[in-house]
Design goal:
about 475 residues, mainly alpha, 2 domains
Length: about 475
């Protein structure tokens, strides 16, 4: 079940809200039980078998956390190692084992077709959250959660369960039992949800069709330079509005129920360096790797050679986290090289206003690598972007796709830049509220029409 589906919008969410805000009781225990039951049902809707894997992971983490908390200071680390090791093992088995066996089969000419383990939706997200809980308890950032059901609520909370943002335990530990739902939070959450829904349905889904068709066509025959660039831009806009839209919906839903999740995107396409881009893109993942991998490895408080190694590990793991394919590994290492080049030569700062163009170019190339089926396919597509084996500079495909998105593309470019917040800040308060209301109503109406009128509703990060 996805947030932008008819089932969620017209059945699941209204029923959960009615049960949660039951006028007969405001008991925190009651409301938490409603959320826990709804969240488990939400996950089981798409994963009726793997919901038991998630429950097993929660119980296992709870037991390790309790044992670690009760252990002597010098005996805590073995429990942490055990917990992290078990979660890493689950990720390897369910996310990477099939791929590893395929690679060994190719290397040793073996038939590994029988090994095909299904990928549980959202396993990377809820596993990282469980790991963050163990880290937070170990480092004393949060008290151990002695109620397994409340730990289960933290992990399975349906607004952020499937695709993040990666909510750390320390961020909402207190809100599990002591949050306060207010009308202001509910209204703000509903507004945020509607804007996220519009991003997903009106912009991401439309750009996805252009990106999918262009990448498919490029794999079959040469396309023009202009078509290749249009497809790359379309994918960059698709993945941004797809993922940031989902994050907006998750943050909005959390706010409606009294939870305050951290921001996950901050207009990444205005970045003036790759370092800046990753401070703005998927912030919860970047900060997770920074705090739980990079800093424990020594961060930048070590020798230059060790710091390079630390950064390499972080970006190799970032690529691997996204999926079991050499393209993701190469994508992570691509950013490692760019970041090291920036740190070494500092050229991004010297480019001035052209630094934004440099970031756009590198990010687009990165997205081509991220999107492609193989490294060879990515290189072939990049070659078409730069005039190698193409159908000329423009072709009929380019003009057809450009004409089909002549209204959506400018709107997408407008909203991926902080123009709308800038306009609101410089308007009188009454005018700003009026603009917000008009945009909100239009977004809600068009989104609902889109939900009812189309069945094309992919979501990229379900794959991770």
């Amino acid at each position: 079940m996805v947030f932008s589906s008819i089932e969620f919008l017209f059945v699941f969410l209204p029923v959960v809200l009615l049960l949660y805000f039951n006028p007969l009781t405001r008991s925190r225990t009651y409301r938490n039980v409603v959320l826990l039951a709804a969240s488990l049902f939400f996950y089981a809707w798409g994963e009726p078998v793997f919901v038991f894997l998630m429950i097993l992971s929660i119980i296992m983490t709870w037991l390790v956390g309790v044992k670690m908390d009760a252990a002597a200071p010098n005996r805590k680390k073995p429990w942490l190692t055990l917990g992290i090791g078990l979660h890493a093992l689950l990720l390897v088995v369910f996310k990477y084992l099939t791929f590893l066996c395929q690679q060994l089969g190719l290397l040793f000419h073996m038939d590994t077709g029988a090994i095909d383990i299904a990928l549980p939706i959202g396993i990377s997200f809820f596993t990282f959250q469980l790991m963050s809980y163990l880290f937070d308890v170990y480092y004393g950032k949060s008290a151990v959660q002695k109620n397994v059901f409340w730990l289960g609520l933290y992990v399975s909370l349906f607004p952020q369960l499937i695709a993040g943002p990666i909510v750390r335990y320390e961020q909402i530990a207190d809100e599990i039992l002591h949050r306060k739902e207010t009308r202001a939070d509910f209204a703000e959450g509903m507004t945020r949800f509607i804007f996220g829904l519009a991003k997903k349905l009106l912009l991401a889904n439309y750009m996805a069709q252009i990106a999918d068709n262009t990448f498919l066509l490029s794999s079959l025959l040469p396309i023009s330079v202009a078509s290749a660039w249009l497809g790359a831009v379309a994918y960059a806009l698709q993945i941004y509005f797809d993922f940031s839209g989902y994050s907006d919906m998750a943050i909005g839903l959390g706010r409606m129920f009294g939870f305050h999740f951290a921001e996950n995107f901050n207009y990444p396409y205005v970045a003036n360096s790759i370092t800046d881009f990753w401070r703005r893109w998927h912030i919860s993942l970047s900060s997770w790797f920074r705090d739980y991998v990079y800093i424990p490895l020594g961060g930048n408080r070590v020798s230059r050679r060790r710091q390079i190694f630390n950064i390499f590990v972080v970006w190799a793991l970032t690529g691997i986290w996204h999926g079991a394919n050499w393209t993701f590994v190469a994508w992570g290492l691509f950013y490692f090289v760019l970041l090291m080049a920036e740190k070494t030569f500092g050229f991004a700062k010297k480019l001035g206003i052209f630094s934004h163009l440099y970031v756009w170019l590198m990010v687009l190339l990165g997205w081509v690598l991220f999107r492609a089926e193989s490294i060879g396919a990515a290189l072939r597509y990049m070659g078409q972007m730069f005039g190698h084996v193409t159908a000329g500079f423009t072709d009929e495909t380019f003009f057809t796709y450009l004409s089909s998105c002549k209204y959506v593309l400018p709107v997408a470019l407008f909203f991926c830049l902080p123009v709308y917040p800038f306009i609101k800040r410089h308007l009188p308060a009454v005018a700003a509220d009026l603009v917000t209301a008009v945009v909100l109503l239009a977004a809600a109406a068009l989104s609902l029409l889109s939900v009812v009128g189309t069945t094309y509703n992919p979501f990229i990060y379900f794959n991770f």
